[in-house]
Design goal:
seven-stranded mixed sheet, Quinone Oxidoreductase, Chain A, domain 1, six-stranded parallel sheet, single chain, alpha/beta, 2 domains, Rossmann fold
Length: 400
Amino acid sequence: MPFRCSVRVGLWRACGAGALAALWRLASPTFPGVARALVVRRSSCKSYAALGPGGPLVPHQLQRRPVGERDVAIRIKYAGICHSDIHQVRQEWAEAMFPMVPGHEVGGVVQAVGAAVTKFRVGDRVGVGNLLDSCRQCRQCLAGQENYCRTGPVYAYNDRFKYPHCAEFGDEAGGGRTYGGYSQAVVVDEAFVCRVPEALDLAGATPLLCAGITVYSPLKFYGLRKKQRLGVAGLGGLGAMAVLIGKAMGADVTVLSRSEAKRHEALQELKADSFAIFPEAKEAGPVGVGDFDMIVDTIAGDHELQPYIRALAPDGKLVVLGIPPKLLSFHAFELIAGRKSLAGSISGGIKETQEMLEFCAQHRITCPHELIGASQINEAFDRVVRSDVKYRFVIDTGTM
């Protein structure tokens, strides 16, 4: 069904039923010329929002901005649930803004485009990650690293549009705030929209907009090479993607987990090369001092870094991707003695995200997921905290 928006009422009054019907027929994907002139007012869509810190997510009517000349209006079909959504709804990182519509893994179909849009047409399958804008002028932005914008990117939700070039900068009606993908529609500048390759299932590709790029970017940047040993700490959404992408890059992948229950998943479902109970392993085995060229730490809970640093080979890299609530600590000697590196990474720029999607299409990689209805979001949050999901929940927004 076409993107529903309040402009229909205004057009009905101004043009009459016959004229509106003719215009609305043009809004289908069959007529890509269309909605360059249709969406001229703020539009309303269904969403799920947390009305206060830690509160349950409930049905919420959300207002989206009009389609500007460089905007793409997207009918959201799927939205992934990331652990960071839970942290922000529960205000575990910092003070947050409410009502909050979470979601930075968005997969959908283009429903309308602005007059100056050149990258997309109505009917295209697209994705939106955790970035909606950036300054577009600093060294990082000009290098395609909007995620490291010097003055800070604009995030998909729980943030404000802060750059004058953005259509919602200082918008009094919308408060200049960002609202995420747990909704049925969104309007985004084309510069921050990615094309989803036809080879990828849209529901399975949606989590790639966060989980996929979050591991692809550091594996590429820190130079993972064929036949190198890669350790993956934690086997949630990020960990699963690290296994799949690491294997596709030609690495020898070992899953490091405290839970024996993860062995079957790692070896049989994700096809990791090996599995080890870590760091409690007592027996002699494949994991020990100096084993790994790189370890990606995807653990979101509090844990010690020391055992992982110790498991690195000389010149090895420990890349921290999870964000535990408490500060991480380690002994500097472990780094110095082996010329080892402790590093971090957060998502990726738009160009690199598109590159990652093409890489995943080439290797037929999507994120293993459980499709849920909107009424199951709160239960899904609790299950994510209990690590009771393989490996991402994806919301069917048509159930809102």
